[in-house]
Amino acid sequence: MVGEKIGLRDRVSLEAFRWFFRRKLAQVFGDEKRKEYFAELYQILKSISDPRSLDDSVWGAVSLAGGTAIPTGHAANCITDSERSTKFMRGLREAIDQMRTSTGRRVEVLYAGTGPFASLALPTMATRKPNDVRFDLLDIHPESGDNLRRILSLVGFSDHVGRIITADATDFDFGKAQYDIVMMEVMGPGLSYEPQLAVMAATKKALRPGGMMLPERVDLGLVLARDEDFIEGDFTWSYVAAERDDCPEMIEVEMDLQDVDPGSYPVGVKTRVTVFGSNVVEPDQAIITRTTQIGECDVEQGATRLFASYPPGADLVYRTYEPSVRVE
Ligand SMILES: C[S@@+](CC[C@H](N)C(=O)[O-])C[C@H]1O[C@@H](n2cnc3c(N)ncnc32)[C@H](O)[C@@H]1O
């Protein structure tokens, strides 16, 4: 009985479990969602998953040219990053609805970097019919694909899914596939560590003309720390998905120093992610937008501008790549 697996007090039938789970997922589109809500979703998904698909060890990470693919257990846990999950889940469904209205046919979506739960697509599957939207799901870990087959069949969403692909998204031949929407969240703060931009550039080739890439844009800016205070720069570097087909070699963020007093400052990078329309993850609302220290700078009298640069996907926390920070 599913009830035993998901820890419900009574033994429940598969039908009752599916009804309960769909209802729970649909709540994403209601009031603001708190951490406890996503913690509960995580526990339900974990309880119906193959434990081999929830690898928490660092050995489960895969190092790629554009950044690191995180282990399956860490990917599963991303659902608990509540503001991120809310904005991506809502933004994805809004984009699908808009596309469905404008084309008048079923919307074909590629979801790259699903982890073992494909969690960002589940609320749409619960609230839209397979005739309205179909997902191809892709992840680099074979355990993710195996678990997706298992849980999608258990929760009754298999009809919403076309292909389940195990591949490196940056190195996969999508053939003649022409998606209406390509969506992913493969990113660390400041576009560090994970290969978001490399995956966006590679999967955009599988987008049909007039299709949508989600997130729509990522903006970065610099922040200086002084005691308890933070001096905020503007957002000066942006990746606007509709306007770019490439993965830049360097991210170069700047800040105006005209009103900054001379002194030594830790330098951080701040992140804003626009998933779709008004579904925006603002700086420090989520792990993916957490302001992250990338270096230090000495501001001397007369200094006008601060520059910081690093390649996308660089590990900024453990400094496997030392960002260049300079003042002019
Ligand atoms: C941050 S997790 C997100 C998981 C899930 N989509 C969510 O939002 O809860 C990113 C996932 O993308 C996978 N991934 C990273 N780079 C990839 C690549 N180049 N090709 C395929 N999968 C990749 C990781 O292994 C991980 O499962």
Describe this entry's structure for a reader:
- This protein is globular.
- 47% of the residues are buried.
- The chain has two domains: 2-215, Rossmann fold (3-Layer(aba) Sandwich), CATH 3.40.50.150; 219-327, no CATH class.
- The chain has a five-stranded parallel beta sheet with strand order 5-4-3-6-7, with helices on both faces. Strands 8, 9, 11, 12 and 13 form a five-stranded antiparallel beta sheet that branches. The chain has a three-stranded antiparallel beta sheet with strand order 10-14-15, with no helix packed on it.
- It has 328 residues and is of the alpha/beta class.
- The chain has helices at 2-6, 14-26, 35-47, 72-77, 82-103, 122-127, 142-155, 196-203; strands at 62-64, 67-69, 107-112, 133-139, 161-166, 179-184, 207-214, 217-226, 229-240, 251-256, 263-276, 279-281, 292-299, 305-310, 324-327.
- The protein binds S-adenosylmethionine (SAM).
- S-adenosylmethionine binds at residues 64, 69-70, 75, 78-79, 113-115, 119-120, 138-141, 144, 168-170, 185-186, 194-195, 199.
Topology:
Layout: H1 2-6, H2 14-26, H3 35-47, E1 62-64, E2 67-69, H4 72-77, H5 82-103, E3 107-112, H6 122-127, E4 133-139, H7 142-155, E5 161-166, E6 179-184, H8 196-203, E7 207-214, E8 217-226, E9 229-240, E10 251-256, E11 263-276, E12 279-281, E13 292-299, E14 305-310, E15 324-327
Parallel strand pairs: 3-4, 3-6, 4-5, 6-7
Antiparallel strand pairs: 1-2, 8-9, 8-11, 10-14, 11-12, 11-13, 14-15
The chain binds S-adenosylmethionine.
